[in-house]
């Protein structure tokens, strides 16, 4: 009986798992520009996408996710903090991948890049260009 149960359970894995690893979250880390190895906590008055809505309001953080919109390939964010307001425009590609005939297709964002930034030259550093659940950080902002 034990052998029959093991064989039945093993057959469940014949088709493979449909593991969805894509995400629409872009993971951001803040770093101290004078001590680049150190994280920096910043109180943001707001972080928003113009014309869409506020992502964060009066929040102190050193790392956080921002959302990518799978309907477009470029998105603008406005960071308001202290006495500053900085704009960051990120670009990415949307790819539809078929994991298997049983799983269907999924949309992945890839090739993350900085299109425009008012943070200053070399202040936004891309660490990982793919938007995946396994990625802990997509880019750092040095403040």
Question: Which features does this protein show?
Answer:
five-stranded antiparallel beta sheet; 7% helix; mainly beta; 143 residues; disordered N terminus; four-stranded mixed beta sheet
Briefly, what is this?
The protein is mainly β and 143 residues long. The protein is 7% helix and 52% strand.
Helical proportion, percent range: under 10%
- Choose one word for the global shape: elongated
Compute the separation of the termini in Å: 64 Å
In the sheet with the most strands, the strands line up as 3-2-5-6-7
Tally of helical segments? 1
Biggest β-sheet: count, sense, barrel? 5 strands, antiparallel
Percentage of residues in DSSP E strands: over 45%
Poorly predicted regions = 1-14
The computed structural class is: mainly beta
Mean pLDDT: 88
Backbone CA Rg: 20 Å
Query: How many extended strands?
Result: 9
**How do the SSEs run, as a string of H and E?**
HEEEEEEEEE
Describe, in plain words, how this protein is organized in 3D.
With 143 residues, the protein is mainly beta. The chain has one domain (24-142). It is 7% helix and 52% strand. The chain has one helix spanning 2-11, and strands at 25-31, 42-49, 53-61, 63-67, 74-81, 84-100, 104-117, 124-126, 139-142. The strands form 2 sheets. Strands 3-2-5-6-7 form a 5-stranded antiparallel beta sheet, with no helix packed on it. A 4-stranded mixed beta sheet has the order 4-1-9-8, with no helix packed on it. It is elongated and about 50 Å long. The protein starts with a helix and ends with a strand. Residues 1-14 have low confidence and may be disordered.
């Amino acid at each position: 009986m034990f052998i029959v149960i093991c064989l039945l359970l093993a057959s469940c894995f014949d088709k493979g798992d449909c593991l969805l690893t894509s995400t629409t979250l872009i993971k951001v880390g803040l770093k101290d520009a004078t001590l680049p190895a150190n994280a920096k906590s910043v109180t943001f008055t707001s972080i928003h996408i113009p014309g869409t809505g506020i992502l964060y309001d009066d929040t102190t953080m050193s790392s956080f996710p921002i959302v990518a919109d799978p309907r477009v390939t470029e998105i603008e964010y406005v960071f308001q903090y202290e006495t500053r307001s900085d704009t960051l425009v990120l670009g990415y590609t949307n790819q539809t991948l078929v994991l298997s005939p049983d799983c269907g297709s999924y949309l992945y964002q890839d090739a993350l890049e900085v299109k425009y930034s008012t943070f200053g030259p070399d202040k936004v550093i891309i660490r990982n260009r793919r938007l995946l659940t396994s990625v802990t950080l997509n880019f750092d902002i040095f403040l």
